[in-house]
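Data availability (excerpt). The following record was deposited with the supplementary files.
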Amino acid sequence: MGIMIDSREVTEEQLRAVRAEIKQNLLAMVSKKSNKPTTSLIVRDILPATDLGLNTEEWDNQTELASGTWTKDWDHQLDDDEGVVFYGVHGHDDASDIMFARFKLGATGATVKDLISVQAIDNGVKRLNKGYFGTPVYYIGKEHIYIDYYARATVAAAAGHIELMGMFCEPSGEQIS
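Predicted structure:
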């Protein structure tokens, strides 16, 4: 299971350095996979609907999450020249029943890439803290992203806000020229 690092343990300077390294790694991976120069690619923060096919640009859970079980929330296949990296989670207070996020690979989620405890960032009062993954989760090229959650109680669709922090890489000119 992936390690969650509480945002209170990371300085802004450390976060900037880690984000810069993650960005460079994402650029290099997409460049290699797509056979395109890094200068023709752009990296930016993820737009949930635009980049991943979610219902809105908000990080709402897409489906009703069943109590006490893993429930697929969404999946999305990347294009050849795209990549995404997830490096953290922002668990808002209205998502307190979502306990774990599982990052899987494939249209059926046959392979688990990582499992993150979202409850690890709960400070006991409000879930407004951010947590960073000890190891970022990358999806490159035609990989199929499959995300499911484990909830301790039923969570209606759009009622839990688990913001997956990350970056999206695409050819320049797709969204930003």
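Summary of structural features: Residues 80 and 141 are 4 Å apart (CA to CA).
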